[in-house]
Amino acid sequence: MLEEDLARKIEKYISIEEEALRKIRISPAEGSFLRKIAEDNMQMILSYYSDAKHFYEKGDLINAFAALNYSYGWIDSGVRLGIFDGAGDHRLFTLYE
Question: What is the value of pTM for the model shown?
């Protein structure tokens, strides 16, 4: 029962993260220092997200859940800092305002 609940939560969070990934855009200008930071952050997001899907497919639900949380944390903090544009979506992202 617990394993089934965790699997459903992971599927839900994968769906939410896919929606967030479709929405966010890198904000800083090309060639700027902050652009490089945003690109590095995006690489971390995609790496953890890929890990989460890999763990989930292997049935390693605990590590899938952990990787999803890390990945989304990078997304949410990037939007809050302004290196990603989240299109003002307060449902998907924790914005400052």
Answer: 0.92
